[in-house]
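Title: [Solved] SGNH hydrolase-type esterase domain-containing protein 3D structure

Original question kept below for reference.
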Amino acid sequence: MEVATCINVNGTTLLLFVLVFSLLRASHAAAPAVYVLGASMVDVGNNNYLPRSLAKADYPHNGIDYPDRKSTGRFSNGMNFADFFAKKIGLPTSPPYLSLNNDATPPITGVSFASGGSGILNETGQTYIQVIPLAQQINYFSLVRNKLIQQLGQSSAQKHLSKSIFLLGFGTNDMLAYFNNGSTIPKQYTQQQYVDHIVSTFKGLLKMLHGLGARKMVVTGVGPLGCYPLKRKLIKDGECDVEVDFWSARYNDGLKMMLRDLKSESKGMKYVYFDMYGAMSNLFQNPKTYGFTDIKEACCGLGKLNADVPCLPTSSYCTNRQNHVFWDLIHTTEVVASIFVDLLYNGTQKYAVPMNVRQLAC
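Solution (posted by the thread starter after getting help):
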């Protein structure tokens, strides 16, 4: 009995120590927590826990530049956008929600719900069999919120969430779904109707997130998707698909307008929109400024522009990842993710609108 009592006391003491340490660490950060919702750009391993999912990166050569060359489920040669974002805030990377024990207290510094292949629309990513769409990610967040209330009390949990940052990286999979070979979406919607449908659905889900206590949101637009290796390989001389780029820009225009409207309708909401399209276009136009020598070809893959096959253990990969914009047929390299987070955190309104993340966190 004495031994058992000792273990219980130590376990309680350890739990209190971890909680106090986390609170102290968060108090020195720009925000107390980062909650991540999104797709593969910010997925740090949730899909590893989806047994039927085809959208996984828990195998080589993914993670070749990650500590210990470990394949963690990040669709990157190393760290990704979410890692660098948390680092800028001054917090550890928010762990995958599905990696947490259901009975455990979620980390006070945030949780990631992001899932590679997922989208704003529930139907996006169905070709990957099993992903976590935005609506389900918000449901998971509501469960974390409930545990925070149990842990901190209603008032303190509400204050914690109001100061936390919600990073949302969506849109790419939704937009590409329209242009995929064999897609049935064009039979249901015109291109403009589809863009409007995505934006309208996104607005409704963000309202739901706001209702759960989110006040500071960071939302990324989509890049010039027609310039990704996935689309370049289909165009003569590897040029950009101008139609896909046009609709990528139209989606971003709708997203920016929606965020402005949502802010006016939602009490206490603040947001940062990241112009991924503009930031990536700048890399294409000025590659040497950033040390890039290849803006078209994927580093890891096979075939034309290394984009006929995803990054698999049997794929070839470039020896110098620092000079490539793209890691695989759709994802950027670690160095690009770092550049983009720098622009988002400290940049001007050229790329971060209407403020940057450093200002949002104040």
